[in-house]
Queue: 2 jobs
Job 1
Amino acid sequence: MLLQEDWAQLDELTRELHEIESGGEFEDFVLGPVTRFIGARFASWNLHDPGMVMLEVVNSPEFDNRVKPLVESLNRTLPTHPLFGRCVDFETGQVRRFGGIERTLDFITPEEYHQSPFYQEVGSKLGIEDQLVMQIIVEEGNGIMLVFHSDRPFSELECLKASIVRAHLVAKYHAMQNRYNALFREAEAVSARLRRQLTGREFETLEWICQGMSNAEISTRMGVSTRTVDKFVSAVLTKLGIDCRTRVIARYAPWLTIPELLGGGNIAHSHARRLRV
């Protein structure tokens, strides 16, 4: 059972979690405060796509600093790892659904783990004596999985902490996903309304305006003269009933950029898009 000080830390984590507004903050939270609360040394955050193929692996700074020199060994030995073989089909790259929390030493003895290629080539050099994998979500082909690494076997208390924290993370993820979906639907409605009001070229001009481009820059992008762009801009302002482009940007830029930022209304997609930039 959790000790009194553990509950106090959990309450603080929960308060911090409720204040998170973006996917990036969520990711930083699980790689920092959550990792420390569970008792891990470092962690990685993995995303997989609708085909269940791994998209990205984002590491906590300490993990990244330690693992970079061993990436080749890591990639070669992970398929032999007893826990990761349960989580990922290394022949197809697909991620498997499991119960939520899995721990390496639940499937192999410490002696067997120490004899594994992963430990001999990677774990021994990084001081990894146990791993705990936490599946946050596998839904509609998208997934998020956290991997925590420790320099000693995870205790029952730490596994309990991970299970409790996972419930909070999953709830927060769903709340954020619902909010993202609502924003995405509203942005699509605004875009559809604008497309009905404006011609195709006028709508394209509006998109460039909302990216802060001058008429000269827009003319280059659209392959037309600056004078033609002047006419497009004038038509946009007239049809929208706005007297200057600054107000156009303030009113419409957020809605026209939301679909791109949210990656189609999905947090996992938005992470992958952001991380590839």
Job 2
Amino acid sequence: MARLEEDLERWQAAGLLSAEAAASILAFERHREARRASARELAFEVLAYLGVALASVGVFALIAQSWEQLASWARIVVVAVPAVLGFALGFALARSPGEPLRRAAQAAWVVAAGLAGGTTAVIANEAGGSDRVVGLAGTAAALAAMLPIWALSPRPLTVLGLTGALGALGLAAGAWRQASGPADEGLGVLAAGVLGLGLTELRLMVPERVARPAFASLCLVGAFIAGLEGEVLWAETLVVGLAGLFLAWSAVRRSIALTAVATIGLFVGLLDVIFEYFEEQLGAPLALILAGAVVLAIVLILARMFRPPREIADAHEA
């Protein structure tokens, strides 16, 4: 670009170009160069995602094929080394110019945090810990790794990684009792979701536009898990109740993402309740029609609530 600027100045001094034409050419070339740079950054981001995915698949393939033949120290190393490399790659990408590469850094960090949790779980397992200890230690380590990452880079991917780590810890905590079942595990996940949602509403978890629907999803998943074992009416009803609550809250917060999460949760919850308790009376087709009608009615109500103020004023004038 510096060479072009020199040429334009020389041509302008020689009377070959007007000042306006030179400025237009320079603006055009700068815009084209910016587009090229953006395309390069996007390509680098895709390649970074591909590299992280290939390395992760390689680690899991190695574990699946050779785990029984590996010594204890080798089992730890085979998980710990990729975790360290993932953190290093994330910091290298975070220092690179351009938003696409910084997004790729978040993906590398999330994978590395998961591998850090896996490393801790392997250490606990090799030390003779029970399955409950292994699960709790691994998920706690993953959460401990994700917290500083999110604090350093509170972006959508790190929030999703933090949500997953907190949900996994809730699941492991719910399974701590000797005679625990899906209800206990689901309540653990639900508690994790409620905690995250509470922190979000206190504006301690950012970005809120991602954290709010992410932790709401965790609440719904927890309630759904709690109702997996047979007919658990309180859990199945809780899914529907939470979904309705989140729908109302999405209107208050004007969050389309939360509306989508709540609508999906309501649909799944209604189907579960109807097929579990009313299928014989209603029949499957009628049950589906009823669930769809309820969801559509809620969508229409929310569509009116989300109307821009100008449209509402025009409707009143008409």
